[in-house]
């Protein structure tokens, strides 16, 4: 078993940096389904470039390397404690080399353990089988899409869809609703795993288990196979699109599993996974610890099950949109000149800030002048080089809506002119942008290599005690592109897409599977 740690390290590295062929194929089909020049097409082409860069740089596809979750099958008699020890060592090493972001945080103190270990982290599930090999599957599922998981208890009333009863049709409605409620915040286009039945805990477990299926397999249960096909065909008619920009592809995969329940409970649990669907698997020789085979590396046999609807109203044009170059400090006049749909190219100094910093700034001062400045909702992966200088390993945006309670106040208090993030923000921030003269810029979620490439220098950092992702990094950027999705005139692309997708959801109200 000497080689085991090295094998696990290889598995972690591949999972974080190299998307499997079935996922790539689904993204490729999505790209082909969008009309050239639309925002969705541009977002998908950034995503494709990013996937390529991550593989070439052997660096994280997305800066959020998620909750490492292992599913392991072992021969009778295998030493599970030894396997766990090796996993923990491999995790620590992958963190030291910037393959994983230090992501394990004490829930009460907020302290980052710094090495991705902690109470309950990583997650490891063991199962025995009668084969003489070890099978290890790993999924790195980030926080933004995890926050979009949802569990329904049937019967229930669903916005847009009405009553969902305790039958296949009620399940159908829940799944469509789950895609709608995620909007672009889980970095759509996404994959969903659905668990029908169980209790609240096992239902979610079953949903996550579905994510280990290959994107193009066929469900052995004909009813569920029909349901999966139906969802793939119709969820895309919601036209939420990549990053919630509108567009033809919202969902890249849907896998449904079922288990028994007790009479009083009927749960439908949905695990939402972003396009950065990082899962790999290996079989390992139990004597040597060496990798024998990879589980997700074969080319998909069937073509991608993506059906698209051409919907002219949702073809958000990006070509022909204005491109505006800005260098902070930015004036109010420059901001008021911007409109939803403009592409902003930023050069100069920007500052990262996410959950801990926003809360902190509510009743503390800022260590640097933010007048006319730009805040980037981002928790990067950083490594110190041999000369003691910080290097950016990955730096895409995080979900902005979490800062909704603070953002408007922070903009006003410090004179901030632009906020970069992803997924959009709510009514309070929109009003604040209008009142104080600021804009919201949407970067492409998950495109962590693409944006890391725009960062020319790390000028400094404050609040390292918050941990690497939550610290305030001061970054020099060049040609950092993002789209204005909320302007200083009360317009929000996110609000528009949410409203139009709710209208479209209502077309699925009538029973289909009776
Ligand atoms: O934590 C992050 O960097 C991003 C997170 O996965 C998110 O989607 O918001
Ligand atoms: S930022 Fe987006 S792509 Fe990255 S883990 Fe979060 S949801 Fe996934």
Explain what this protein looks like in three dimensions:
By secondary structure, the protein is α/β, with parallel strands linked by helices. It folds into three domains: 1-18 and 61-141 and 278-298, Dihydrodipicolinate Reductase, domain 2, CATH 3.30.360; 21-26 and 143-275, no CATH class; 323-493, Alpha-Beta Barrel (fumarase), CATH 3.20.130.10. It contains 14 helices and 20 strands. A five-stranded mixed β-sheet has the order 2-1-3-10-11. It has a five-stranded mixed β-barrel with strand order 13-14-17-18-20. Strands 4-9-7-8 form a four-stranded mixed β-sheet. α2 packs antiparallel against α3 (39-57). The structure holds (2S)-2-hydroxybutanedioic acid and iron/sulfur cluster. Residues 62, 64, 66, 142-145, 186-187, 274, 276, 396, 445-446 line the site of iron/sulfur cluster. The site of (2S)-2-hydroxybutanedioic acid has 9 residues, from α5. Pfam families: Fumerase, Fumerase_C. This is Fumarate hydratase class I. It catalyses: (S)-malate = fumarate + H2O. Its EC number is 4.2.1.2.
């Amino acid at each position: 078993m000497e080689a085991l740690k090295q094998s696990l390290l290889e598995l972690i590295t591949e999972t974080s940096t190299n998307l499997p062929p079935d996922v790539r194929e689904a993204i490729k089909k999505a790209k082909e389904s969008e009309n050239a020049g639309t925002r969705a097409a541009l977002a998908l082409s950034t995503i494709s470039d990013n996937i390529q860069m991550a593989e070439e740089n052997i660096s994280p596809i997305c800066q959020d390397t998620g909750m490492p979750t292992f599913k392991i099958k072992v021969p009778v008699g295998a030493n599970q404690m030894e396997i766990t020890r090796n996993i923990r060592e491999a995790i620590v090493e992958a963190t030291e080399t910037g393959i994983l972001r230090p992501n394990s945080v004490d829930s009460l103190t907020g302290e980052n353990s710094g090495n991705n270990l902690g109470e309950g982290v990583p997650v490891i599930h063991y199962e025995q089988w009668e084969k003489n090999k070890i099978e290890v599957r790993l999924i790195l599922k980030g926080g933004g899409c995890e926050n979009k998981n949802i569990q329904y208890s049937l019967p229930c009333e669903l916005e847009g869809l009405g009553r969902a009863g305790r039958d296949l049709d009620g399940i159908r409605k829940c799944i469509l609703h789950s895609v709608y409620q995620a909007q672009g915040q889980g970095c759509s286009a996404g994959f969903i795993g659905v668990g029908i039945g169980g209790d609240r805990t096992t239902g979610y477990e079953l949903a996550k288990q579905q994510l280990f299926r290959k994107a193009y397999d066929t469900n052995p249960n004909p009813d569920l196979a029909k349901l999966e096909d139906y969802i793939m065909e119709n969820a895309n008619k919601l036209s939420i699109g990549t990053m919630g920009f509108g567009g033809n592809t919202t969902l890249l995969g849907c896998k449904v599993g079922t288990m028994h329940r007790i009479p009083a409970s009927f749960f439908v649990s949905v695990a939402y996974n972003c396009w950065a669907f990082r899962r790999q698997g290996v079989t390992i020789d139990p004597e040597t610890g060496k990798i024998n085979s990879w589980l997700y590396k074969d080319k998909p046999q069937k073509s991608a099950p993506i059906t698209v609807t051409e919907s002219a109203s949702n073809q958000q044009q990006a070509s022909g949109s204005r491109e505006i170059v800005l260098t902070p400090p930015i004036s109010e006049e420059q901001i008021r000149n911007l409109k939803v749909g403009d592409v902003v190219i930023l050069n100069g100094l920007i500052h990262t800030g996410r959950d801990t910093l926003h809360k902190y700034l509510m009743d503390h001062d800022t260590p640097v002048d933010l007048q006319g400045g730009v805040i980037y909702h981002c928790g990067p992966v950083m490594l110190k080089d041999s000369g003691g200088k910080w290097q950016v390993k990955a730096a895409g945006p995080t979900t902005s809506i979490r800062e909704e309670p603070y953002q408007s106040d922070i903009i006003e208090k410090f004179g901030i002119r632009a906020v970069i993030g992803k997924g959009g923000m709510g009514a309070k921030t929109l009003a604040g942008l209008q009142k104080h003269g600021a804009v919201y810029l949407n970067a492409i979620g998950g495109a962590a290599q693409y944006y890391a490439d725009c960062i020319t220098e790390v000028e400094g950092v404050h609040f390292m005690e918050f941990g690497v992702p939550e610290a305030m990094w001061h970054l020099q950027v060049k040609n950092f592109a993002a789209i204005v999705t909320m302007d200083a005139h009360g317009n929000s692309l996110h609000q528009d897409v949410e409203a139009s997708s709710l209208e479209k959801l209502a077309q699925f109200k009538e029973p289909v599977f009776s």
